[in-house]
């Protein structure tokens, strides 16, 4: 990196790749557990898929994708919590990239929780 302009160009290029934004006016927050247990269970591709889907669907002005440390339920990793204004959080467990696509399509866009992926409906 040799100049401020080069840094600005890199930042602009990476904007679509990283949808981790400040949660000021966003109504939906997607939080992926990225502690060691989550990463070992496959949380990185889940986080990446959520970022990609939110960007692809043009939802980045209303939806924040972020990460957190340990959520405390290691046996259910990868775990994703969705916080929506005025609603109880939804906790999805044993997530993968394909499930993330469905959650964005049905829950985030469609407003319908994908109940079979939630912690209350998980079957070992």
Quick overview:
The chain contains 4 helices and 4 strands, in the order αβααβββα. It has 124 residues and is an alpha+beta fold.
Task: Describe the 3D structure.
With 124 residues, the protein is of the alpha+beta class. It contains four helices and four strands, in the order H-E-H-H-E-E-E-H. Helix content is 35%, strand content 16%. It has a four-stranded mixed sheet with strand order 2-1-3-4, with helices on one face. A hairpin with a 5-residue loop joins strand 3 and strand 4 (90-92). Helix 3 (43-56) packs across helix 4 (97-109). The longest helix is centred in the middle third of the chain and has 14 residues, at 43-56. The N and C termini lie far apart (49 Å).
Write the layout of secondary structure elements.
Layout: H1 4-14, E1 28-33, H2 36-41, H3 43-56, E2 63-68, E3 80-84, E4 90-92, H4 97-109
Parallel strand pairs: 1-2
Antiparallel strand pairs: 1-3, 3-4
Helix pairs in contact: 3-4
Radius of gyration: 15 Å
Q: Kindly state the mean pLDDT as a whole number?
A: 87
Helix content: 25-40%
Number of helices: 4
Number of strands: 4
Helix and strand element order? HEHHEEEH
Q: Strand sequence of the main sheet, in spatial order? A: 2-1-3-4
Structural class, by secondary structure, is alpha+beta
